[in-house]
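Geranylgeranyl reductase family: structure, please.
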Amino acid sequence: MPIIKTDICIIGAGPAGATAALQLAYSGVPCVIIDKAVFPRDKVCGDGLSGKVLTLLGRIDPGIAARLLAASFKLDSWGVNFVAANRMGINIPYKAGYQKAPGEPRGFVCKRMDFDNFLVDELKRCPQVQLIEGVNITKHTLEADGYLLGNASGDVQIKAKLVIAANGAYSSFTKEVANIHMEPEHYVAGIRAYYKNISGIHPDKLIELHFLKNILPGYFWIFPLPNGEANVGVGMLSSSLRRKKVNLKQLLHDTVTKDPEMKERFKDAVLMGTIDGYGLPLGSKKRALSGERYMLTGDAAYLIDPFTGEGIGNALYSGRMAAEQAIIAIAADDYSAAALRAYDAHVYRVLGPELIMSTKLQKLIKYPWILNMLMKMAARNKEFRSLLTSMFHEVDIRRKLTQPMFYLRLLFSR
Ligand SMILES: Cc1cc2nc3c(=O)[nH]c(=O)nc-3n(C[C@H](O)[C@H](O)[C@H](O)COP(=O)(O)OP(=O)(O)OC[C@H]3O[C@@H](n4cnc5c(N)ncnc54)[C@H](O)[C@@H]3O)c2cc1C
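Here you go.
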């Protein structure tokens, strides 16, 4: 096969890579995007899509957001049920006042098999995008005029002036080129299972985060899906996992069979398929996201929210920003590390404040009493409940949650 020549090659067609390619295409810029998988393909995930996803896709093109809204493979989600170790819980709607405007949910739950395939189908609508599936990029050599990328057998070779690495949590590009390696303090290990017939699902299909004492600072989740199914999983900081020598599959099994509340809810539940695990590279540490002729995006850039474990939204945001930076680089014919640093600045300007707040919250919830106290407060204080609601969208409010004075005031308020 002759060498494919392109200005921009995107490695990975998951949410980050597909979004980068879509933004380029809708700006009239061609690219090559290559994935080792053939779509539709599965990706281990909680399958929770926050409001960021629809917002961002709508910014690229309102038609994409409209097609996602119309898709039948997803379940609308109106809020979150947070449950502390003391079993007190609070329902937090995504929108203040719990407005359920038809056709306007803030979030969705849908299997990644479907969502990622939706994005790839969107790519296939764009003539500027050359999508190559089933090719695992293992070689990346920096040459004077660009990166030479290739697979192990050498039968596929791509020469690109600029690389957007979007190949996920185990990205070899991130390790070998950007020299960023997994650190257990900034990494979560998660497992996911699909169940049918779990009882006690909220009528409004709230997603459930259970901050069980033995899992902190991680959580056990139940995310309702269409057709009576649910995505059930557990995620735990890798450093805690190692220290406590926890086996995640055993932990999941014990939770659904022995926990007093869950064993009732899972009494008639049926496990569908296997229980699978994957890594979550957290954005709890600031890193260099670009270098000469490359930018890292999504999980390959370690951008997962350390408190919620949400990574899809940030994958989309960073993918779009990388595309915007790529367009500037092409126009200036400047792919230097110095020029691409503007991408890092953009990412951290937009996502940085949220990541910093979530890192503080992640550290706070290590202590079960804090969440217990928050739940007690929320149960008796209406103002505090609405504050927690706004927390989802307003970084300033999350900042309040990280200040000791806030808790003191709360303790003395009614
Ligand atoms: C257990 C678990 C639960 C999670 N729950 C949620 C959740 O509910 N909500 C949420 O927002 N986030 C969640 N996340 C995080 C979310 O899954 C990721 O943040 C998201 O998938 C990142 O998208 P991405 O495009 O960066 O990477 P990926 O989705 O991993 O896509 C990377 C793509 O690159 C391809 N690829 C990899 N290597 C190569 C290569 N060498 N050559 C070519 N192609 C390659 C892969 O095939 C894949 O298609 C969860 C993660 C885990 C592990």
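Notes: Residues 337-364 form the longest helix (28 residues).
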